[in-house]
Amino acid sequence: MVEYKNMHSDENKHHKKRKIFLFFSLASLLVVAITVAAVVGSQKSKGGGGGSAAQAVVKSTCAATLYPELCLSTIAAMPEAASRIKSSKDVLMTALNYTITTVGHNYFTVKKLAAKRKSLTVRERGALHDCLEMIDDTLDELHDSKSELKNYGLKNYSLSDHVDKLKTLLSAAQTNQESCLDGFSHDGADKKVGSALLKGQMHVFRLCSNVLAMFKNITDAEMAANGDSFVERRLGEENEHEWPKWLSAGDRRLLQASTVTPDVTVAADGSGNYRTISAAVEAAPERSTRRYIIRIKAGAYRENVEIPRRKTNLMFVGDGRGTTIITASRNVVDGSTTFNSATVAVVGDGFLARDVTFQNTAGPSKHQAVALRVNADLSAFYRCDMLAYQDTFRDSRL
Ligand SMILES: *[C@@H]1O[C@H](CO)[C@@H](O)[C@H](O)[C@H]1NC(C)=O
Ligand SMILES: *[C@@H]1O[C@H](CO)[C@@H](O)[C@H](O)[C@H]1NC(C)=O
Ligand SMILES: *[C@@H]1O[C@H](CO)[C@@H](O)[C@H](O)[C@H]1NC(C)=O
């Protein structure tokens, strides 16, 4: 989940609209779910036992997906697990297991592809490298989904938190497949590699879509059956346009406080601990569960910054948007992929930023050039600018 507040960019308006739209559609979905739950509830008491009962569960669960034939063949491909199926959740878990195995195979296929073809351009090699990174992300997200699903239904767990988290993980896993293909969407891209990729990526995309659809089908009914308090709370919360629930009180304070005590300071003029932001990120603790604050003094920082997966819970505090500027110019025309053109790329979860401008100065003739890319969960931006000509901002988590 990613949150943006008071952010200026051309894409921002559009983006906000999308978010609002998302909540609206969720609201109507839930209303529909309530009516459906009554029907599902009344049907539950029926149904026999034995193998045909398992088949009936598979059939009805797969019916909720966009690719039901694929769903059925997925379950059929795992006969041992299929024989143990009792509920929709078992179908979901079996499909998830299958998806994880498939993504694993896909990783090696893409790796081989990269090794075999000698004629690839620099950008195509870069794109394949991006794909491997994204496939790896997908695997992580699917494994996280699996452990999250194991806790599903525990009494001490808020169902809505759980559902939010899983929906985010599964949609991210799905979106990664598209982002990977983006790298081969330009004119003159290697057709063989492009079509080989397309096949595997679309397969995984559909598998993820099915898992997500089954999950929604199960949880929408359960949430509705749980009473409507969730619906009201959810709507009330979003209407206020307040901070997202997952953002801790401490983090909200850090985003708004007039002064924040940093762990380290970056200053281009040498008056801080580091001269470059990348050096400060490199020196930051790994897998931190505590917030680690990097103050970035006023100035223009000409660098590409990556917050890798292992650098969790970092926060950038600038001196003000328009004052603290991170700027670079990687772009598609000069050989980057859209994915790796980002001036700042955030992969580590729990990233926060305030009072910073993210900029990609590649002009309009350079096609896709991204100022900020976010592949991280639980990330928020407060009073930040995103400036570029095209594809200013990419959020793989929507
Ligand atoms: C679940 O899927 C079934 C089969 O498509 C559908 O009839 C039902 O309305 C869905 N339930 C919810 C809550 O979306
Ligand atoms: C999924 O795979 C795990 C092993 O990673 C196994 O323990 C579990 O039983 C499988 N679940 C289903 C429903 O096949
Ligand atoms: C809920 O209980 C399980 C074990 O019963 C525990 O592992 C988990 O951390 C608990 N979750 C919360 C949110 O307290």
Automatic annotation (TrEMBL):
Looking up InterPro entries in the UniProt record yields: Invertase/methylesterase_inhib (IPR035513), Pectin_lyas_fold (IPR012334), Pectin_lyase_fold/virulence (IPR011050), Pectinesterase_cat (IPR000070), Pectinesterase_inhib_dom (IPR006501)
What's the top EC group for this one? hydrolase
Its EC number is: 3.1.1.11
User: Any idea which UniProt keywords this protein has?
Assistant: Aspartyl esterase, Cell wall biogenesis/degradation, Disulfide bond, Glycoprotein, Hydrolase, Membrane, Transmembrane, Transmembrane helix
Database matches in CDD domains: PMEI-like_3
Query: What is catalyzed by this enzyme?
Result: [(1->4)-alpha-D-galacturonosyl methyl ester](n) + n H2O = [(1->4)-alpha-D-galacturonosyl](n) + n methanol + n H(+)
Protein name as it appears in the record: pectinesterase
